[in-house]
């Protein structure tokens, strides 16, 4: 069989070191979270937004437990798709939730791309027409696509390089911002009309979006050296690093901008916070970091997402058409992922993209914990109370978030619900047809299948 005809996915075992993995994880996490979410969270919950980041970290801590336990037991390159398969077998819950994860990752790319555009335009005095942000975002996704067609080594190299510059830059931003403000004085006295519990939960849900990058670490499980130990370590270190960085930046922004200013500049609040403190050079510095951060995030994200879709395809859980394209399945899923990301980037604004992402992600997350509780607990030696707590916390913030959105932007909740119905129905039809045509998938190779 020639290389052209061989459509299996190839992974290089042991090609990712622990520091490389941590850079990939933090790279994805710090990309979106801090640059665009800070302002959106402030808009939702007022001056309490640095606390919402901490609340999100606590919830993500509980969430990470299930992922670490499963990935220690079964390190795999497909991460989430494989976890769901272990729990639910070749059934609708696996396909549905894996696709939710897939779409939430594609959504995250569009989010990064729009953020890249919003920050870049700060160098040219903002984007009055509203056309440049999506154009820049679309160009960035295309550039990341081209790099992704090249090699693993290059992606890891570029991502690590950008990651180091970016994390260094953000730390400098946070420290200098807090130092210049003279005192960490955040005005907690007036939570505004958004001072309700629901709004705080909603902002916490957005904060979770800033941490969910840790799941990309699980997606590269089989490529990490000594995965049984290092996947868990990389996740813990990445989350801890992000807590420190987000809190610093949150306080730096809150100390240098009033709440109304943070909300007015919500798509580029870090650049705005740099302006009063340090002038135009600081804005350039911040924009440069934002550009690197979002670009690095997209690079790592496209890499992980296309891999996940390839795995679902190989597990016969999603329909796949080659559309006459040469090369491996992973190359095709890369193309699908990029096309989808381009469409979202072109037509949706930042806060709506974030809202879709968080709804999909939280529902998938709940399914993972339920799978652990219901089916995998004994196999992976997990304590029941941790995933149970994670489910309760997820439901709490999801409820708060949906409540806020129903009051402010019901359209986006409508889109989310419709999308989920379409995914569920389409998957059910596909799986039924597939079974009828006599392809059992690889049910036999897994211990669990539940009827």
TrEMBL record:
Entry's localization field: Cell membrane
Membrane topology: Multi-pass membrane protein
Top-rank taxon, per record: Bacteria
Transmembrane regions: 21-42, 48-68, 92-112, 132-151, 158-180, 200-219, 231-254, 281-310, 331-348, 354-373, 385-404, 410-431
A Pfam family assignment: AA_permease_2
InterPro entries, alphabetized: AA/rel_permease1 (IPR002293), APC_superfamily (IPR050367)
Coiled coil: none
Keywords attached to this entry: Cell membrane, Membrane, Transmembrane, Transmembrane helix
Major localisation: membrane
PANTHER family: AMINO ACID TRANSPORTER-RELATED, INNER MEMBRANE TRANSPORT PROTEIN YBAT
Name of the molecule in the record: APC family permease
Organism: Marinobacter azerbaijanicus
């Amino acid at each position: 069989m020639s290389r052209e005809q061989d459509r299996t996915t190839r992974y290089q075992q042991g090609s990712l070191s622990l520091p490389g993995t941590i850079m990939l994880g933090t790279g994805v996490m710090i990309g979106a979270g801090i640059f665009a979410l800070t302002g959106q969270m402030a808009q939702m919950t007022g001056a309490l937004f640095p606390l919402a980041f901490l609340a999100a970290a606590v919830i993500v801590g509980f969430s990470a437990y299930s992922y670490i336990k499963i990935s220690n037991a079964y390190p795999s390159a497909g991460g989430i798709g494989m976890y769901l398969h272990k729990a639910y077998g070749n059934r609708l819950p696996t396909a549905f939730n894996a696709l939710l994860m897939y779409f939430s990752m594609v959504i995250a790319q569009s989010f990064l791309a729009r953020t890249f555009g919003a920050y870049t335009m700060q160098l040219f005095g903002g984007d009055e027409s509203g056309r440049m942000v999506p154009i820049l975002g679309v160009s960035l996704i295309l550039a990341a696509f081209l790099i992704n067609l090249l090699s693993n080594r290059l992606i890891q190299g570029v991502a690590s390089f950008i990651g180091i510059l970016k994390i260094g830059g953000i730390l400098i931003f946070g420290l200098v911002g807090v130092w210049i403000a003279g005192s960490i004085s955040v005005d907690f006295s007036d939570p505004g009309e958004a001072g309700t519990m629901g709004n705080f939960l909603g902002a916490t849900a957005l904060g979770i979006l800033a941490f969910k990058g840790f799941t990309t670490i699980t997606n590269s499980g089989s490529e990490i050296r000594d995965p049984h130990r290092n996947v868990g370590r990389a996740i813990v270190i990445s989350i801890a690093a992000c807590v420190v960085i987000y809190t610093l930046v949150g306080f730096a922004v809150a100390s240098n901008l009033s709440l109304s200013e943070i909300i007015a500049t919500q798509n580029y609040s870090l650049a705005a916070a740099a302006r009063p403190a340090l002038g135009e050079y600081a804005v350039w510095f911040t924009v440069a970091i934002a550009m690197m951060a979002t670009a690095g995030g997209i690079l790592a994200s496209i890499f992980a997402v296309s891999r996940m879709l390839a795995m679902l395809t190989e597990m016969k859980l999603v329909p796949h058409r080659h559309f006459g394209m040469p090369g491996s399945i992973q190359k095709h899923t890369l193309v699908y992922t990029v096309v989808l990301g381009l469409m979202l980037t072109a037509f949706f604004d930042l806060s709506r993209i974030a809202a879709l992402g968080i709804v999909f992600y939280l529902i998938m997350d709940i399914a993972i914990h339920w799978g652990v509780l219901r089916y995998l607990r004994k196999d992976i030696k997990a304590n029941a109370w941790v995933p149970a707590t994670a489910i309760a916390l997820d439901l709490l913030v999801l409820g708060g978030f949906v409540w806020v959105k129903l009051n402010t932007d019901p359209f986006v909740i409508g889109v989310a619900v419709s999308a989920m119905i379409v995914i569920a129905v389409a998957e059910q039809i596909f799986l039924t047809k597939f079974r009828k045509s006599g392809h059992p998938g690889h049910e036999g190779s897994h211990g669990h299948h539940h009827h």
